[in-house]
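Morning F.,

Quick status update on the modeling queue. The single chain you submitted on Monday has been processed. Sequence for confirmation:
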Amino acid sequence: MGCGWLGLPLALALAAKGHSIKGSTTSEDKLAELRSKKIQPYLIRLAENGITGYIDEFLSEADILIINVPPKLRGNQSENYVKKMQLLHKHVLKSKVRQVIFVSSTSVYGRNQGEVTEASTPEPATESGRQLLASEAIFRNSKNLQTNIIRFGGLISDDRHPIQMLAGRKNLANGHHAVNLIHRLDCIRIIEYLIEKAMWDHTLNGVYPYHPTKKEYYTAEAKKRNLQLPEYEDSNTDLGKKVTPMVLLNVKEFCFNTSISS
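Structure tokens below.
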């Protein structure tokens, strides 16, 4: 559910491994693209007052549901993401789906400081983080479902990198904080691994285990791309956090393959 920047490449990767894939989109223009890529397309829109589209048909005969629908709470936008997930959960329980992968975010750790692992108690500082944490619980606490929660860090790819927005900016704060990033290819590999190994009922941090400071990392990335360097304030107001993927680091068969440094 959700064939966007991460969902579509994930669907293609799973299809290439022989899985039969259904994919949802909120854009009518994208239906033909999904169909051309051998993904059975569905136009589905989640809203806090209801779900439009053939949601029950989308869920029918499915073994696993991957929920990749982020909250839309930036700027002046406001929505009840939790209510949307509650509505989706009701439909899931009526279906044959019994295994769910819920794509979440390290934003649920908001106020945490120092090293953060899956054993740390989340302290979200934003509305998005709070609603994601509450939505995780809807699926994790459902007795009829086996649910994996994946808390991805900042998402990057060859065509999407934060330095594009940070280049040349001045007076940036928290340059001493560690970066918590992950490449899209490793996001896909994590989800594939969980499915292939039938590894269920886990909460995992999806973050590449390399944590230079923001100042070090983004300065280096700007130099590689011949971009204007970002400038950071000398501030040490708090430690920041380093999100460690402890669960995956302790799985012998899994390793992160795609560096966050180009």
